[in-house]
């Protein structure tokens, strides 16, 4: 989860610690720090708790954006999945780093206030095909790719939907996720209003800038309106239309040579991105900033190599901190 970058990458470390400082200025500041949580060993980690994982994941993403900027890598267009839209908005300069981490922090706090037992499940069917199996109390939550959908809702309703899918299609993937909350379902509406009140004066809408396009997975299209507190409430409560938004992005950028760089703790969107690109008949490279169970510094170096191989200009200065030294006492090879 980026521990090695905190230790070895100045841009990442500076951004991450600044975000920690921002959280400590809030009236209801956390009793923990982002850095201490990231550096905890697996056996004592509390990153599974939404109140910590939400701001920690956003902090990681923001710090990665700043790290890539130090390498001279920036976006022409951005898209986010679920809470990943917060960091996408930061990358597009629609939110400041302080606004973004604040929105993520209170989003995590709201998850602690959802008391209705819920569940989610991944389904290997299209959005439309999945809809026909939904049982009362389950809803479509995430449209990930042409044949990947996430459902959400009441625990029994989600489990009944899984059974219905398996009865009709025994070989179709339908698996309950390891979460106890129904994200992007009506359950979120129980806290959506309070979330809005907490962030309405802390996430000020900014005008869209022409140089970075923002494709909304809330609305499923490129947006022309600022992302204000109302938008982030919608992001919490509404289905994720990632596939539709990504398809619109690909269509809008037809004829341009793009590289899709995922900014997150692992390549979670590799399959949805590659499947959507294949459906559109587009050949473009997908690169993950980090990988599960891989040293974060090694993963970034690998990503740098892949970006360079895809003709992305890289400023390698951050790889060699400090002033270079000229060695004058080496033996001469005659």
Automatic annotation (TrEMBL):
GO biological process: fatty acid biosynthetic process; secondary metabolite biosynthetic process
Record keyword Transferase present: yes
Membrane-traversing stretches: none
Boundaries of every Malonyl-CoA:ACP transacylase (MAT) domain copy: 1-294
Organism: Cladophialophora yegresii CBS 114405
GO molecular function annotation: fatty acid synthase activity
One Pfam family per UniProt: Acyl_transf_1
Protein name listed in UniProt: Malonyl-CoA:ACP transacylase (MAT) domain-containing protein
Keyword Protease recorded: no
Keywords: Transferase
């Amino acid at each position: 989860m980026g521990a090695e970058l905190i230790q070895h990458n100045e841009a990442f470390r500076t951004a991450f610690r600044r975000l920690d400082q921002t959280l400590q200025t809030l009236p209801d500041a956390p009793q923990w720090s982002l850095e201490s949580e990231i550096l905890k060993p697996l056996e004592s980690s509390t990153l599974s708790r939404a109140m910590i994982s939400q701001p920690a994941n956003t902090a990681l993403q923001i710090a990665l954006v700043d790290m890539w900027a130090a390498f001279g890598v920036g976006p022409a267009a951005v898209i986010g999945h679920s809470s990943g839209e917060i960091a996408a908005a930061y990358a597009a300069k629609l939110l400041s780093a302080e606004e973004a981490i604040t929105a993520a922090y209170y989003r995590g706090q709201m998850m602690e206030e959802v008391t209705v037992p819920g569940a989610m499940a991944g389904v290997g069917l299209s959005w439309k095909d999945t809809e026909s199996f939904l049982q009362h109390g389950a809803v479509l939550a995430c449209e990930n790719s042409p044949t990947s959908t996430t459902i959400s809702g009441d625990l029994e309703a989600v489990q009944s939907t899984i059974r219905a899918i398996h009865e009709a299609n025994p070989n179709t993937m339908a698996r309950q996720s390891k979460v106890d909350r129904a994200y992007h379902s009506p359950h979120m509406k129980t806290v959506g209003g309070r979330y809005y009140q907490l962030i309405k004066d802390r996430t000020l809408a900014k005008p869209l800038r022409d140089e970075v396009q923002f494709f909304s997975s809330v609305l499923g299209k490129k947006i022309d309106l600022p992302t204000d507190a109302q938008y982030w409430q919608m992001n919490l409560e509404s289905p994720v239309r990632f596939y539709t938004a990504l398809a619109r992005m690909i269509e809008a950028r037809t004829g341009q040579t793009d590289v899709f760089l995922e900014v997150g703790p692992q390549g979670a969107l590799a399959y949805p991105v590659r499947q959507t690109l294949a459906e559109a008949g587009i050949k473009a490279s997908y690169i993950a900033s980090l990988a599960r169970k891989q040293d974060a510094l090694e993963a970034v170096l690998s990503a740098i190599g892949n970006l360079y191989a895809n003709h992305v200009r890289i400023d390698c200065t951050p790889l060699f901190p400090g002033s270079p030294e000229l060695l004058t006492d080496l033996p001469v090879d005659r």
